[in-house]
Amino acid sequence: KAGVTQTPRYLIKTRGQQVTLSCSPISGHRSVSWYQQTPGQGLQFLFEYFSETQRNKGNFPGRFSGRQFSNSRSEMNVSTLELGDSALYLCASSLDGANTGELFFGEGSRLTVL
Amino acid sequence: GDSVTQMEGPVTLSEEAFLTINCTYTATGYPSLFWYVQYPGEGLQLLLKATKADDKGSNKGFEATYRKETTSFHLEKGSVQVSDSAVYFCARMDSNYQLIWGAGTKLIIKP
User: Fold this and answer.
1) Which residues are paired to B48 by β-bridges?
2) Nearest chain A alpha carbon to B40
3) Partners of residue A110 in chain B, C-beta under 8 Å
4) Which pLDDT tens digits describe chain B residue by residue (111 residues)?
5) Where does the pLDDT of residue A99 fall: very low under 50, low under 70, confident under 90, or very high at 90 and above?
6) How far is CA A15 from the centre of its chain?
7) Given an 8 Å threshold on Cβ–Cβ distance, is A103 in contact with B46?
8) How many CB pairs under 8 A join A and B?
């Protein structure tokens, strides 16, 4: 069974640009959650999508957005990038929802903002 | 606010040593508790969990007991192997069904 796949794995952007990250969950999983991981703040929850609907949202500005498609693949977008957005962005899928706490993570997309 | 505190790493042990990684949490009520592990070059994966007080989660020789009196969920293993070298994260579920994570503890096992 294929795991959670995130693309791209690495990317470099400049301030003010926007970026889109993609996540393919494990087959059959309907929930996709996104996290930001930084050395200073650790793992922070961005949002969860379940069957194409945003089910939960963390405390991030509106520049961070996401969506989920009918095949459960998800994308997250960050607009007007700031230096502080440099981080590892992790996607996690879950069969029954992130509220179970049983998440399967991808390896992440490492974003560097210059 | 809600938080999870883990012992700072790195923790360096010799093979076959006994392992304890401390984890304490703040909470109202009795949240579900989790340990996740991140092996080098891999994504985070659930190691074990406990959903109510006095529950013991176990997997791959690791154990953790939900202690409501001390609000702790310490991870233990009786005899570690080099292959256990990884970063370990403690987490708890909050009232909004989001996971609150500890900072992670890097474990290094020397042969």
Assistant:
1) B35
2) A107
3) none
4) 679 999 888 999 999 999 999 999 998 888 999 999 999 988 999 999 999 999 999 999 999 999 999 999 999 999 999 999 999 999 999 888 889 999 999 999 999
5) confident
6) 20
7) yes
8) 49
